[in-house]
Amino acid sequence: MERTLILFKPDAIQRRLAGTLLTRLENKGLKLVGMKMLRVTKELSARHYAEHVSKPFYPLLEEFITSGPVIAVVAEGPQAVAVVRGIMGPTNGAQAPPGTIRGDFGLSRQMNLMHGSDSVEAAKREIEVYFRPEELVGYETTLSGWVCAADEAK
Ligand code: IDP
Ligand code: MG
Q1: What CA–CA distance (Å, rounded) separates 58 from 75?
Q2: CATH label of the domain that carries residue 107
Q3: What is the model's pLDDT at position 10?
Q4: Which of 32, 57, 85, 130 suits 49 as a labelling partner, its CA being 20 to 30 A distant?
Q5: Known catalytic residue at 52
Q6: Which of 63-77, 115-129, 133-147 has the lowest mean pLDDT?
Q7: How far apart, in Å, are the Cα atoms of 5 and each of 58, 107, 118?
């Protein structure tokens, strides 16, 4: 079963949208296996956004992501990485289609509410950036059998 790393970014927390965003993930059928609130430091930002550190927009991204608390979430489900990218929508909220989180709640390219890993490899790396193994909780829910068929639950 696939896992992905999600952040509710500082704008989502400041705008009191954390519950709304979490509800979207739960409603989809994803299982929450890790969650914590934290403040992203400059060092953590550079580890998370390693691929962007040398880009011209990185100083603004760093300023934004360190500007207030975030909530980090690990969600699990079939194709969780792609499913969460779909729920979240494209980077720029002004262009993101309605029905996506960025399309419904934002109109900014930078303040786009949520991060979601963009590949299985990135998810693995990013989960390790934010969580120690013992902070992730594996468990079964009685609903699991009604969320997807047994042959899809892998
Ligand atoms: P993604 O979050 O949709 O995967 P990325 O291109 O990986 O988008 O960029 C990481 C984050 O950096 C974005 O979510 C956004 O907050 C910020 N960002 C991306 N492009 C720009 C830009 O051109 N100016 C300012 N911030 C940007
Ligand atoms: Mg990205």
Answers
A1: 26
A2: 3.30.70.141
A3: 98
A4: 32
A5: no
A6: 133-147
A7: 20, 23, 9
Total tally of structural domains belonging to the chain = 1
Backbone angles phi, psi at 76, to 5 degrees: -125, 140
Which of 85, 91, 113 has most ligand 1 atoms within 8 Å of its beta carbon, as the pocket-test mutant? 91
Range(s) of the domain holding residue 106: 2-152
Q: What percent of the chain has pLDDT over 90?
A: 94
pLDDT tops 90 at residue 154: no
Mutation test residue for ligand 1: of 5, 61, 111, the one with most atoms within 8 Å of CB? 61
DSSP state of 140: -
pTM above 0.85, yes or no: yes
Q: What is the pLDDT of residue 153?
A: 83
Average pLDDT, the chain: 97
